[in-house]
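Dear colleagues,

For the upcoming journal club I promised to circulate an example of a predicted protein-ligand complex. I picked one with 4GY because it came up in last month's discussion. The inputs are reproduced below in full, followed by the predicted structure.
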Amino acid sequence: MRIDIVSLFPEFVAQCAAFGVVGRAQERALLSLHGWNPRDYATGNYRRVDDRPFGGGPGMVMLIDPLRDALNAARAADPADARVVYLTPQGTRLTQAKVRELAAHPRLVLLCGRYEGVDERLIEAEVDEELSIGDYVLSGGELAAAVLVDAVARLQEGALNDAESAAQDSFESDGLLDCPHYTRPLEHPLGQVPEVLLSGNHAQIARWRRMESLGRTWLRRPDLLDEAALGKADRALLEAFRSRYLR
Ligand SMILES: Nc1nonc1C(=O)NCC1CCCCC1
């Protein structure tokens, strides 16, 4: 998968993607990142990339042409069709389902805004999809782009080893929150390890983990829990969690 980043700080995203699973995906040629800086396409004495907003008000707006020329250079760098995504709080919320959809594309071009944003005419003419990673305002789209790069990189075939795939699947497969995890030392002032995890009884351990995932999702993110879609066994586990929790 090829991802082109259009940004005033293209190295920002490249740095975020240089570590761990994403860095390894690049080493394995499962993912390639390419940066394009609109400032390299800015003309005139001051090579402006922004200007004051029509209608007045604070801040600056990114100019159309340097962005558009950088986008076109990115498009031209590879024959594969590119899906252009603009990272912005005004976008639709990024979900794992959307990550899966985007991860299946041969190419993405991620447009990162700065200042107060980008001239709307550029968005209307060049952007396929506006996405938000959450309801808060960052200083630029680069951190959001790095989040998206990480999430789609993990889904590239061969990016994760078996253990990592299992961990990914446990959350991704049914959209529940993950269960708690514990490791050595067994004895610690901060508390005990749940007995069931020491039992060696894999059926009981799986049952406990599923119950904890269901219970946590119910407590913390009821919006993710579609109880109607739960099977009989899951409903029984959730009931067991509730009765223990509400006792
Ligand atoms: N939240 C977000 N999700 O995706 N992007 C986000 C963001 O906060 N981006 C910064 C803004 C800053 C002004 C220009 C446009 C991007």
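Two points we might discuss: The two ends are 51 Å apart (CA to CA). The CA atoms of residues 64 and 122 lie 6 Å apart.

See you all on Thursday,
B. R.
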